[in-house]
Amino acid sequence: MRRLLTILGLLAFWSGNLAAQSAWDGYRDDDRLTHSLREALAGKESLARLGRLTESGNGRTIWTVEIARTGGTPVDQRPGLLLLSNLSGDRPVADEVLASMIEKLLAEDLGEERMKKLLDEHVLYCVLRPNPDATRSFFTAPRQERRRNATPTDDDRDGRTDEDGPDDLDGDGVITWMRVPDPAGDWLIDSEDGRKMRKPDAEKGERGTHRLVIEGKDDDGDEQVNEDAAGGVDLSRNFAHAWQEHDRATGDYPNCERETHALIEWVLARPNIAAVLVLDRHDNLVNPPKASSRGGGGEAPGGGGRGRRGAREPETQVQSQDVSLYTEASEQFKKLLGVEKADPEPADGAFFEWAYFQFGVPAFASRVWYGPGPEKTEEAADEEEGSEESAPSAPRRGGRARSGSRGGDDADRETEWLAWNERALNGAGFVAWKAFDHPDLGEVEIGGWKPFVKTNPPASEIPALADAHLGLLHFMAEQFGHIAIQEVEVEDHGSGLYTVKAVLTNDGRLPTAIRQGQMNREVLPVRVDLELHGQELILGEKMSSINSLDGRGGREELTWMIRGEPGSRVTLSVRSQKAGRARQEVRLDG
Amino acid sequence: MSIWKRGTILGALAILALSGTARAQDPKVQIAWNRYYDYDETTALLRRLVDAFPWFLSIESIGKSHEGRDMWVVTINNPDTGPPENKAAMYIDANVHGNEIQGTETCLYTISYLMENYERIAKVKRLVDERVFYILPMVNPDGRDHWFDAANTSSSSRSGKAPLDNDRDGELDEDGPDDLDGDGHITQMRIKDPEGRYKRSPADPRLLIPVAEGEQGEYSLIGSEGIDNDGDGRVNEDGPGGYDMNRNWPSGWQPNYVQGGAGPYPLCWPETRSIAEFILSKPNIAGVQSYHNSGGMILRGPGYESYGEYPRGDVAVYDELGQTGEKMLPFYRYMIIWRDLYSVYGGFVNWTYEGLGIFSFTNELFSSDQYDSGQEREEGQNRSEWRQQWDDLMESGNQYIDWHPYDHPVFGEIEIGGWKKTSSRVAPHFLIEEMLHRNTVFSLEHADQMPMPTMSEPAVASIGQGAFTVTVTLDNERAIPTVSELAAQKRIGLPDFLEITGEDVRVVAVARRVDRFPEEYRRMDVDQPGRLSLERGVSKGSPQTYRFWVRGSGDATITLRSQKGGTRTKTLRIE
What we know:
Strand content of chain B: 25-35%
Distance between the termini of chain B: 73 Å
Low-confidence stretches of chain A: 1-20, 295-308, 374-407
Radius of gyration of chain B: 28 Å
Structural class of chain A: alpha+beta
Strand order of the largest sheet of chain B: 1-2-4-3-9-12-10-11
Oligomer: heterodimer
Number of helices of chain B: 13
């Protein structure tokens, strides 16, 4: 037994070495990522501060980085941009890109005008690798794709948790695929390229010959393979907008996990967050939301209106008044990244959707890497039903492959991916199919795409991706709303009576509250206080609320009549949750 | 202690001495059932009960409220009949809305009734022996205490006490109502106003009634008692809390803009989250009751129309229980929340049924029909006149505070008056015990109908060459199935398992009987014939017979394992 363990240990070591020599070498595990962040922030306390969001279920620290030059406007009163990477766990490229953005930002010329504005007037809140227990499987042998955190879950409802996951049967350090001969299977081997699996074309009289199953065996003797792997909740599906109940991967309830609960509380405690950029598997930057056919807007909430007995329905589409924010960002992003197309991806329970619909700020989602090469921009992974693994038109995890649909498209994409694998990776992304005598399934072949190959690019691509996203960040930082007291007029009526008229403007791009933020009432109105110092207010409001000031020069005029000593002063105080504050003393005289 | 509470203690003792009910005459723990108890008093009573019946009762705190009060759960379990997780459990809570207080006393009464009568009433003994009860009398202890201790209306202090920015000015809880006249109640303010839309009632000058179109008015109503605490020119615009913990549960939850009070996300409050975690950790819970007030209702979901209707089999079970409830609870009606009351997204009993597959009710305790015995209003009499008449008749006018002058810092000369917080929603003292008893026994009936699966003696027959058949029949004596139809559809929790185990026994096939005359079995295509999953559980009136083909010899056991029906085991000998 001991010898066996030693051999296994050696195997793990050997395969670990293999991974270390791969094109993904530059990816940083938790320790290296932590070290990088500490290094980037060292000696820059007045610019950037490291914080702990919480610990994951397995005790890994989740880091936050706050970037803002201290002094001047208090940080929590500045418009904030939240940057969040890799809730899905299987996109370490997103962590790499965000960490690189932080490193590059802090290494830039901090005296440059654009940087001065960014650091002095705004705040960047970064959260990196919030699903570290899933991401861990990128860095450990056998390497396997995983989105679900460490919460034990009984996927197959047999009363036991996590008792039968994939196994590295051929000991090559990666979990790949098994093709299992099965006359009832719904896959066949492509006759032209024996690496390729495709769906049979029923019109041509073809029939399936194989099942595709993730590499593994029946660990618990229940006659099923890989039916209950380690892992609980897909954190990128655990948020409260369009959360899917009765799906074991989405959690018992929204924000039920310590990681997501901590994140949401952390965000709610920072109501100055005015925009969100999530780097993960979703996208609304290449494919921005379109104006809803319903029109939206108007006085009534743009959503489904009211049902019977006064039941209002939740919004499911971006408000038409907010759409241009997305299309403008999209134009920038596509230019910066050189990407034109992105496959759709279900976003039920996703954080960025919550951030728009319920937190009420513009929330952008970048897939970070949209696939190989300038020509080929599509991600071929079949993401239907939230399937976790990307593989040749991947069936879901579990012993039985499910039938997919888009057979022809998938086959074309598969050809592109294979060509890229030869061209860019020298074939290293794909394991050639090899016969294997399987303890439960008999003669099978093991091989296929290595995990993460289709979702995370070779490390050499990271710097360019980071630059493109940094470009987007600067663009977004220029969009923030900015509230100002543009002019104040005082008219002396005699008898100590004065009229004070003030014009407020927003000369940023974003309104002080986007339409959805007004509609869901989560973004506070702009509050204007007239502070009196011994004077008497004759007409006008001591405290006024302005629902929202549009971007690009939105104006609001306020008037008060005050009785006071000539030459005395009153103070105007203007507070926006997400577009800063302004304050001005006004002297009562002609 | 308020005057109102103190005044009732002597009366309570007097009534206690005279009453002759099914309740024990010489209880181990004397509790007056004609009054209400604040948080500390309730805590003390729970402790006294637990101390008096330590064999059956245990108490634990499952979390703390926003203000740090313990949230008590009392577990009733007879260890002689097995650990709690092996028995179906009835979960009962109350007072999620801080002002809806009387469910708490119903919880106390339930514990007392089951314990004091365990040795006296055979059915009580059976219930305690067969079942487990988890009882959480105060879901919202902060709201409860605030309602008892501070000036309130009958419907204020519904919220928990986490501060909230109700008027969206960036400040929290900065301007709530104020008990200007110091009488312990928040009543109404009125001001003399020839343009006002109210006048004194000709029938009863204490009352204000609306004036007709074109008629000269006398008064304007200017809101609840209070001042402009924060100097923003508005009165009472941001009182304590301001959210609804019964709109904070995950199933069908919608945010504040769809439904006010929902909170920023489901289970965001310490109270709701602690309870959810508690319930999720107890998959044996098979029945839920959550007491509210008022109106005399036995409510079930769905909470909103677009949900659709519950599966037919489950509706039949609900109907049976609900209709029994209507008989037991005069003036209460069995109702569907969205259809007969109003729309609710993310209600508690919606979660426990729609999310967890547990048959769940909310009783709205106390109907004003009980006050007036359901008599019809007189022709032309408006609602306040009717109320006043019955307050005068039944409580000598004690629940109404007549208008009296007050010099208000914002409005000047005004008058204050109106209904006390103890009116209308909370049963008056003389009706409390009946309310507690009827609701308790309804919930005990609910508990009694939780699943009780049975397994016949297994019949072993040799079919030669060392092979045998083992045949058993499963049934359920009670109305609630071991797996609700909804749970089966949505794959909630575990299915029931029927297992044969034995050292030298191997199950090679299993079949289910599909006909009795002639007897016919159909083979079941399953991965593990020795561990059969019963996704639809076991229901009353549809016995299921299974036959196993077995090889080997010696002793074996056959076990039915049901999360909500407990475990049934029989031994058998293969020979």
